Amino acid sequence: MIIGVGVDIVAVERITALLTDHGARFLERCFRPAERELVAARGERGAAALAARWAAREAFLKALGTNVRYVPYRDVEVVRDPEGPVRLALHGRAATVCAERGGRTTHLSLSHERDHAVAVVIIEG
Q1: Helix (H, G, I), strand (E, B) or coil at 42
Q2: What's domain 2-124's superfamily in CATH?
Q3: What pLDDT, on a 0 to 100 scale, did the predictor assign at position 45?
Q4: Is this prediction's pTM over 0.70?
Q5: For the chain, does the N or the C end have fewer beta carbons within 10 angstroms?
């Protein structure tokens, strides 16, 4: 049974501006250590990867039917499985609220172009 579906699109320029204005504080507040390391390793392409991960958080919150006031961004992590596909790892409030609403499994799809990144999240019960 599908609990929720969320989609979000983010302008890479918006994330670049947040990085320029807030740097490490923005990264530490919103992203987990492994995500920060991955983005740092990508150099100039890091902002696009970060935009996709930001979109994933927003899409998850939309699928869950809540907002960042109840689930911090850091509690939603995008991880890459050894075989290559990305998935969500839920921590803290994200895991708790998802389980309370009947969510057992999440599905994630990410894509990014030069200027935009998009994410789709499906939560199944």
Answers
A1: coil
A2: 4'-phosphopantetheinyl transferase domain (3.90.470.20)
A3: 84
A4: yes
A5: N
